[in-house]
Write a structure and sequence with these properties.
The protein is of the alpha/beta class. It is built from eight helices and six strands; from the N terminus they run H-H-E-H-E-H-E-E-E-H-E-H-H-H.
Length: 242
């Protein structure tokens, strides 16, 4: 049975509307940039190579990686600096000294304060120490909080002060004494050595217990220790009955 649909209607059902091809839109010279004319810079985008898809992909059977070996496998390959087992370059070169070699040569050894700071922040007759310097002069935190105090001679001092520090420059010491003040050298904590530790332990069998008690006393003075736990320090532990 013949179709009764008009020829114009049959053509309309077959013919699809025209669709614009996806192409790069480039803004003309002098044209204002809009969302409809933005596009990547010519040459900035490239199609990714589809490796391992056979000879038809144009990369060859092994994609340029060769037949065998670590570099032809999937994964990251040899680590950076690896030279196949021979001594690598970073080990053949000599070590650098100081900051360039990763040593602490550039780190400060003291919390430094000058005479001009003492003149500005302390009144006559006051005592200068690391604690008062932290309160009035410097905001110290981190590694610097564990460093001792050193006084240098920049500036002038006209007040009589009692200065307690681990180290003084010669000019600072003379200026403090010339102003009627007093200089007191605070000793630093002794550096731990195995020889000194062995000697102290031989002289005092309870060296470790006494050391722990002193540490607890310091923390108690700062309010950082539970009193109930502090009372148990130094007491022998009860042996559990079997």
């Amino acid at each position: 049975m013949a179709s009764k649909v008009a020829p114009s209607a049959r053509c309309a059902a077959v013919v699809r509307p025209f669709k614009a091809a996806r192409c790069q839109v480039v803004a003309m010279a002098g044209e204002r940039l809009r969302l409809n004319n933005l596009s990547p810079w010519p040459g900035s985008r490239r199609d990714e190579k589809r490796k391992g898809r056979g000879y038809g992909a144009g990369q060859g059977g092994t994609c340029g990686f060769g037949n065998r070996g670590q570099k032809c496998r999937s994964g990251s390959g040899p680590r950076p600096g690896f030279e196949g087992g021979q001594v690598p370059l970073y080990r053949r070169l000599p070590k650098l000294r100081g900051i360039a070699g990763g040593m602490g040569a550039g780190l400060p050894d003291f919390v430094v304060i000058n005479l001009m700071d003492l003149e500005k922040n302390f009144a006559a007759g006051e005592e200068v120490s690391l604690e008062t310097v932290k309160e009035k002069v410097l905001s110290i935190s981190g590694r610097d909080a564990t460093l001792p105090l050193k006084v240098l001679g920049s500036g002038k001092l006209t007040k009589s002060l009692t200065v307690k520090a681990t180290a003084f420059s010669e000019s600072a010491k003379q200026a403090i004494e010339a102003a009627g003040g007093k200089v007191e050298v605070v000793p630093t904590a002794a550096k731990w050595t195995r020889k000194a530790y062995t000697k102290a332990k031989a002289e005092n069998p309870n060296y470790e217990a006494d050391k722990l008690k002193k540490k607890v006393a310091r923390l108690q003075a700062k309010g950082l220790v539970n009193k109930n736990r502090a009372a148990k320090v130094g007491k022998p532990k009860a042996k559990a009955s079997k």
